[in-house]
Design a protein that fits this description.
alpha/beta, globular, 8 helices, seven-stranded mixed β-sheet, single chain, Rossmann fold, about 220 residues
Length: about 220
């Protein structure tokens, strides 16, 4: 059940929540965003920028699935004329519209396909992508285990799943944020670090690393 006042202020992902604007502004303007992340999440925002920046090293022809793409934060890592086949997927039409505008500003629209998709039921064949990116997304999914199963399924052998998430066991000081997030509809049931690690291993992922930075974890794993 949502708390009415919180829901009205923040909104859920079926709308265009206020939190989406705050999040994107904090990432796009690190001069104020980095201190905001440090105080609010106890997290080093540079880890997010490093994760996004790693997209620029992918060779032409690489297939990437970004889910949930949100407002297109990760598109900042693409180079114009890089030649990627990049699918920006989200269940929210409002988020996809934000991502489209971001792609236009960055000059990467020709590399990106936008798709309204439920991550727990991806339409892709097995072994379709070289990289799956899921930034600050797993904690939003109503079925996080099913989402991880699907994201690992569509990876090719040798492909990487890379992302970040707000988990249930990253410290008591963040419990109030977890409670408010669930009440507003922004957060789902979430999961712990050990659950995430277990789901990745069960999905055939190897060399799994889970790095904690305040309320967030950054994870990377290779298929096969």
């Amino acid at each position: 059940m949502r708390l009415p006042v919180v829901g009205q202020v923040l909104g859920g992902w079926e709308t265009d929540p206020l939190w989406a604007t705050v999040y994107e502004a904090s990432v796009n303007h690190p001069a104020f965003g980095a201190p905001f992340w440090r105080v609010g999440f106890g997290s080093d925002q540079r880890l997010l920028h490093e994760t996004v920046g790693s997209l620029s090293s992918l060779p032409a022809g690489s297939r990437v699935l970004d889910v949930p793409c949100g407002g297109g934060i990760a598109l900042r890592g693409l180079r114009p004329d890089q030649g990627l086949d990049y699918v920006a997927a989200d269940i929210s039409p409002a988020m996809l519209e934000r991502a489209r505008r971001a792609a236009e500003r960055l000059g990467v629209t020709d590399q990106v396909t936008f798709r309204e998709t439920d991550v727990a039921d991806l339409p892709d064949d097995d072994a379709s992508y070289d990289r799956v990116l899921s930034l600050t997304g797993i904690h939003c999914f109503p079925e996080p285990r099913e989402a991880v199963v699907e994201m690992t399924r569509v990876l090719r052998p040798g492909g990487e799943l890379v992302g970040s998430a707000f988990l249930t066991d990253t410290g008591w000081r963040y419990e109030a944020g977890r409670r408010v997030g669930r009440a507003s509809g922004i957060l789902g049931p979430m999961c712990s670090r050990s659950e995430l690690h277990g789901w990745l291993r069960a999905g055939g992922m190897r060399r799994v690393t889970v790095r904690t930075s305040g309320a967030l974890v950054y994870f990377r794993a290779t298929k096969g």
